[in-house]
Amino acid sequence: MTHQKFSIQSVLMLIITFPFFLSPSLTWGQTPEKIVLKSHTPQDYSDIMSWRYRQSPIDIQGFLALPVGQGKFPAVVIIPGSGGYQQWMQDSIAKRLNDAGIATLIVDSFTSRGVNQTATNQGTVPMAASVIDGFAALRALSERPEIDASRVGIIGFSRGAVAAMFAQDRRLVEAASTTPLQFAAHLPIYPGCATTFDKPMPTTSPSLFLMGEKDDYTPASQCVSYIDRLKNAGAQVSSKVYKNAHHG
Predict the structure, then answer these.
(1) Among 126, 127, 157, 225, which residue carries the largest CB count within 10 Å?
(2) Domain ranges, ordered by start, for the chain
(3) pLDDT digits (tens, 9 = 90+) for 174-208
(4) pLDDT for the residue numbered 23
(5) Which residues pair with 210 in a beta bridge?
(6) CB 87 within 8 A of CB 108
């Protein structure tokens, strides 16, 4: 597959077709580049929609890996879960995407905010901040000459999947950027759906929810209800619940 023929929707199948955990001996086409992302730290979603979030700027970091070759590559933003940035995300997810001609940008929401993990206290980094970090990554990619800004998808795990899920709402898209940038595809993997929009306003971009049947941390049942609301609002959304699968 060449990147010129790539359809952003096919990243959804690419992720679930290949195994996540690969040999550590795999090598990169190009070494990931640490880049600065201009973000903010909203305390909640109302901070985003009211634009109050812009009163709390912060520079965070991300790890950009480009495929071998030249061109305007499609790209995927990867938002980690409560454990933060992990090397396996580069060695497995990003590596497979890079091999398929897709650039990757893994967001580190924690280091610059002085946090190692949020599993013991999700409030140490507000969930809304991870959403804004995702948009900050999209904006940074749009400014890179190697990237096709119209073909950038987003993948998230657990709390990162919440960012991938909420980044599909038009109200947040409009508040998060002064330019009309939105993700071309969304892949929330075992997201937490305890907090959702009663009346979602989805973009036209497709999304795929991947969930575990026996996940007792972010129950799939809560997301199934939200997916129904998304569909009723006109979203192009599908889902898969893995039998006997737990969180992670």
Answers:
(1) 157
(2) 27-242
(3) 998 777 799 999 999 999 999 999 999 999 999 99
(4) 36
(5) 189, 240
(6) no
What whole-number distance in Å separates Cα of residue 244 and Cα of residue 248?
A: 12
Rounded distance between C-alpha atoms, residue 216 and residue 164, angstroms: 20
Q: Give φ, ψ of 89 to 5 degrees.
A: -65, -35
Closest CA relative to residue 139, chosen from 179, 187, 97: 179
Angle at 17 between CA 137 and CA 73, to 5 degrees: 35
Residue 92 and residue 104: Cα distance in Å, rounded? 12
- Calculate the alpha carbon distances from 17 to 13, 31, 152, 225 in Å: 6, 25, 20, 26
* Sequence-ordered list of residues with C-beta below 8 angstroms from that of 155, at least 6 positions apart, any chain: 11, 15, 76, 77, 78, 79, 93, 164, 187, 189
Structure token pair of residue 210 = 């991947």
If you write DSSP's letter for every residue of 130-177 in order, what string do you get?
Answer: HHHHHHHHHHHHHT-TTEEEEEEEEEEETHHHHHHHHTTBHHHHHHH-
Supply 207's token pair: 């999304």
Contact 101, 177 (CB under 8 A): no
The span from the first CA to the last CA of the chain, in angstroms, equals: 29
The three-class DSSP label of residue 222 is helix
Spatial CA neighbour of 60 closest among 159, 121, 133: 133
Residue identified by tokens 């898969």 is 240
Q: Decide if domain 27-242 falls under CATH 3.40.50.1820.
A: yes
Cα angle, residue 113 at apex, residues 174 and 139 outer, rounded to 5° = 30
Backbone angles phi, psi at 220, to 5 degrees: -65, -30
pTM of the model: 0.88
